[in-house]
Amino acid sequence: MIVLADLAGAAAAPIAEFASKAGVSEPTVTRFCRALGCEGIRSFKLLLAQAVAVGGAYLVSTEVPRHENESWLIGNVCDGAVEAIERLRSGVDPELITKAGRLMAQAKSVLAFGSGGTSSMAAVEMQNRLFRLGLHVTAHADGQMQRMAAAAGDRDTVMIVFSISGAVRSQKDAAWITRQYGGTAIAVTAPSSALAEGVDLVVPFDVLEDGGLYRPSSSRFAMLAVVDMLAMATAEAIGPKSLEVLRRIKQNLNVLKLDDPRLPIGD
What we know:
By secondary structure, the protein is α/β, with parallel strands linked by helices.
């Protein structure tokens, strides 16, 4: 209870103060730390400080904020999405987007990889956008499948991997495997990450969260915007050839449901 009552204080307090507040001896504090798997008070305080730095806000903020005007909720989500896309707009390099689109347009096979929530969603959406252009594209969120799919590729394969952190091991492995067999690896990720260092082309993605505890991640809107940019760049690189596939998809979907040319393709 002493620790939970003041997480930051417990992470900084010397062992004598810790023991005094708990009403126990210093050896008892040491035994407590070792019971938790730590070597002693120093390693315990280090791990505690790391936990507070990463997730402390979620431990102390227990009440859901209330507002007199419920429309605040709508505005908060929409503002977060707009801000994330605007932060992306100010940092994205159009030459890199165009180059990535050309690489995918020329590929015989495209592999789209992601891991976790936002990145795996982006990979599936990349597949959803590219197959409509007549490309052979497959998306995988499972790490083992990513490695196997990369190993089955060749020099005509382009892998595009989405990762906000750039630290997922299966994705780093897949990039290395793809390049080992002559393929091209593209990453939409943090520019200083380990993943970025192991690919042929990096589209920097450095849209940080704004700290909203109860609002879903706004950065996923920016990630989807990158997907749309890449899809559009790929479509322009392919040119008019992609229009026939789009026409056939649109035609067959309209036969099966409401015939309204204003509806998006397949959505």
